[in-house]
Give the backbone structure.
Amino acid sequence: MDDGRRYFAEKRLHRERLPRVEISYMNPVSTMRLRLGLWALLLVLQFLVTASPPEALAPAVAGSVYLPLMALRALGLPVISAAESGGWGGPSALGLMAVVVFWAAVWWGVVSLVGRVLTARQTRGRSTTSSTSP
């Protein structure tokens, strides 16, 4: 028997000796509800801070609006309207939509990451208790 066949035969024997583990996942509907609930909460908090920022948070809020717009403006998109002399231009309609889409995507990513971590913890806790041998 050549080395390749022997390797795979040994690997198959080793795999057959391992205990079988049943993995039960969280219900997809409850995972999606959790994800949508957290996402909506984060978007509402972002909107509330943007609508009436405390004085200490004003620079961060301005940055959260203008930093994504500056990147899009560098690409040539008209996301910042014309400014009066010596001042900052406000976001255009396209700019406001871009900010909303950008932060919705950022918060969706955060919520997806948190959801994966929570799901992995629940799955890991269940799989260690439900192992059976063949």
